[in-house]
Amino acid sequence: MTEEEAFEFVKHTLKEERITPYRKDEIEIVHSVEDCINCGLCINHCPVVAAIGVDRFTGPRSIAVELSRSPPEFWSTADKVYLCTGCGTCREVCPKNVNIPEVVNLVRARIFKHRPDLVPKGLHVVREIITKYNLAFEPWEDPEEKVESRDVRLERLGIPYIEDIIKTGAEVLFYPGCQAEELAQEVREAAKVVLSYFDVDFTLIDEMSCCGLPSELMGDDETSRKLSALLKGKVEALGIKKVVTTCAGCTSMLSKISQRDNWDIPIYHMVEYLVEEVGLVQISEALGSTSEFSDVTVTVHDPCHLIRHTSRRTMEDAIEILKAINGVKIVISEAEDSCCGGGGLVAYHSKDVANAVVQENLVAINKTGADRILAPCPLCTAQIEANLFRSGSSVEVDDLMVFIAKRLPKK
Ligand code: SF4
Ligand code: SF4
Predict the structure, then answer these.
(1) Which of ligand 2's atoms lies nearest the C-alpha of 43?
(2) Ligand showing the shortest atom-to-Cα distance for residue 89
(3) What is the tens place of the pLDDT at every residue in 363-397?
C-alpha cells in the first residue's frame, strides 16, 4: 500500500476523531523519536521524574512514545504532558538527540487544537489574558499604582529611575518581556540603568507585546505565530539593529522566531550583550571601582532557557561579570543548572509539581553558605525566591541585572 493509499484508508477515522495529519515540520519531530534506543538516560535525568516519581510523571521517553498512539490513547496523555517543565535536560543527555521538548510542544498543540477540553484550566486563563492584552500577565488596572509599585521597589534597591525612551533608528531594542514589564519592574528598570551607564543607544517598544512563548507552550500555535508577527512588525518599524532582553525565556523564543521568520538581526541576553558588545574591560572598570557595598558571597542559578535552549556561554559570561565586582565571592551550587520548576507553564495548573522540582535547588543553595542567589531571568528568580522564603531560608535573591545595576557607580 502506498503512503497516499494508506492515508485514504485512515482518513475517515481521522475525521471522526477530529485529527489532522502532521505538517512537514511536525513529521521531522515525529521521525526523530524513531531514533530512540530506549537507553533510559532521559528518565534518569528528568527533574520532574526525580521530584514526583514515575507513577505521576512517566517521563520523557514515555512522552515520545505517545506520538505513535492511536487517537483515544493519545488524548489520555493530557494528564502527564502538561507536567513537563520544558527544561531540555532529556534532549541534552540523549545520545540520539531525540528532541523531547519539541515532542511535548507538538503533543500539546494537537491536544489544544482537537481536545481543548483536556487543556488544564489554568492555561485557559493565561490564554484569555494573552488574547485580551497581548501580554502573558494581566496589566495593572491603575497605571498610577503600577508607577508607585515600581518606585517603591527602586527606592528599596537603591536603583535610580530613568525615563522610558521610545525612538526609531536606535542601535538596540531593549525588550523586557511580559514578566519584567508587569511584575518584576525592577528588572526592566535595572536593565535601562545598565544600558544607559554604558552609553548604549537603545529604545523600548511602544506597547509591549508577548514574544509568543507561553502560547507555544500551551499548544496555541496560532496565537504564538500571531504574536511573533506582531512583534516582528514593531521591530521593523523601529529600525533597530539588535534586540536585548533580560528574560531567559524571551531570549530563547526570540532567537527561535528571529531565525524562523527572517528578522535578520541578532538577539542577545543582556549578560551576553554586555560581555560581547560593551566588553569586560569597561565592565570591570565600572564595577571594580564600587566600594560602598559590604562583601557578599553569591551563588548563581542557570536558567534552562539559556543553558539548554540558547547557549551555555551566557552563564560563563555571567560569572566573568560577577568576578569583576568588588567584594563579590562566588560559590558554586551543586544544583546550579537544575531546573527550578518555573518553566513549561506547569506552575499555572500544578504548583505542587513546580514547587517539588525546585526543592533540589533549595537544598543545594542553602548548602553553599551563600548570602545571595542570583539568576539572569525574572521567572527563575520569582520561583526560587518564593520557595526559599516559604522554606524559611535566610538566603536572599536578586535578578542578576538588579545586582549589577545596584553596584554601578553613580554617574
Ligand atoms: S524537558 Fe525536562 S521536564 Fe520535560 S521531559 Fe525533558 S527532562 Fe523532563
Ligand atoms: S535518552 Fe534518548 S535514546 Fe535514551 S531513552 Fe531517552 S529518548 Fe530514547
Answers:
(1) 6
(2) 1
(3) 999 999 999 999 999 999 999 999 999 999 999 99
Question: What is the 251 CA–ligand 1 centroid distance (Å)?
Answer: 19
Strands across the sheet containing 172-175? 202-203, 172-175, 242-245, 267-269
Selected from 3.40.50.11810, 3.40.50.1450, 3.40.50.300, 3.10.450.50, the CATH number assigned to the domain covering 283-407 reads: 3.40.50.11810
Residues 140-183: tens digit of each pLDDT: 999 999 999 999 999 999 999 999 999 999 999 999 999 999 99
Does the beta carbon of 340 sit less than 6 angstroms from any atom of ligand 1? no
- Quick check: 176 and 247 in contact, CB under 8 A? yes
Fold of 143-278: Rossmann fold (3.40.50)
Among the bound ligands, the one closest to the CA of 45: 1
Q: Is 226 in the pocket of ligand 2 (CB under 6 A)?
A: no
Residues of the chain with CATH 1.10.1060.10: 10-119
- The strand pair at 242-245 and 267-269 is best described as parallel
Residue with CA closest to ligand 2 atom 3: 36
Q: Which of 81, 84, 86, 36 is nearest to 61 (CA)?
A: 36
307 Cβ closer than 6 Å to some ligand 1 atom: no
